[in-house]
Amino acid sequence: MSDPTEASETPIIDPSFVRGATLPRISRRRFMQYGGAAGLTAFLAACGVGGNTATNSTGVGTPAWWAKQKKTGQLDFANWPLYIDVSHGTHPSLDLFTKDTGIKVKYRTVIQENPSFLATIRPDLQAGKDTGWDIIVITNGIYLDELVRNHWLIPLDHSRMPNFDKYASPIVKNPSFDKGNKYSMAWQSGYAGIGYDPDKTGREITSFFDMFDPKFKGKLGFFADNLDMPNLTMVGLGIDPETSTEADWRKAADFVIKQRDSGQIRQFYDQSYIDHLANGDIWISMAWNGDIVQTNSEQGTNLKFSVPKQGAMLFTDNMMIPAHAAHPLDAMTYMDFAYRPYIQALITDYNAYLSPVPACRSIIANRLHDPATANDPLVFPSQDLLSRLHRYRVLTPSELQTWNSIFLPVYQG
All domains of the chain, ordered by start, with CATH? Predict the structure, then answer.
């Protein structure tokens, strides 16, 4: 099959069919509940014991190993709910993959949160067995780091990544959490920043410190979590989370405690923050961009999302191949296929997250007839916005214990 990304060719799926039949968009971030510090600590304790070293002691993932792999015609793909294009009960981008390669995909939305999903595959990984999945999609940070540390991922075959090499955005190439993309290729990315109701605030929000305007006292929401709340606060205070120290963590915690005790912060919220923002209980809050888009779409609200001038947090969900996967070459074939601009246009147009393939923008605008998504600065960010995004600090097990002792009392007290 010729790649329908070429402008002279006609897409083999009618764009109007794709746009008209898709399910309502939803924020994938709604499914990202972190399980609390106990869950994180338990996960790290379990994974820190030491994993099966098959992926680095027996040549797994080396060029010689990859040269021996054969296409099986089967791919078992684990992803988050509502995170790929849908049309009339099928996934057009997956249908195109099967038509192009002959590989049939068993696509399952079995990942509701990182730690609980990893708990289901950990026994097999420790035992050196196939998890039943050839591709899993895991968020950068603690979880991906532990998979790498325990040698539970198969190194990618870089000779089979021509589309990634040609089309991937610089922001997903050579990320700090996986230098050289040794183990991962981005699926989609998103932001933790500030959400607000301009009708209530009476003005645009452009700075982290705008949240602490006395006018918003008792109308400010903060995240009740130990990931985005601490990291976004550090960014606001001019601290780079990736290189932060324990002294920086305490500075951030002290700042939030001061805002909490003064009554500036109304409450620390879980995912319910978006409902309180929509109904006017709060006027401004830490927020995930997907929630703002989805709430406006579903409820007709006029909420806005801001990447403050100090910066915002960037999360990336990543495709990777777990150790002992039964169909690694089929997985490798799909991962690169997803970086074809036309295929990524279908996926990005449905998800409306930060696209890993900037070249799909014109396809979304002109061939899928969705200029709103094509012109969304959060889907296709400017260099200025990209320069203000930060990655998370990856914590060792001992650092996590200190981190939790500092931040949990901030919102649980």
Answer: 15-190+315-381 (3.40.190.10), 191-313+394-408 (3.40.190.10)
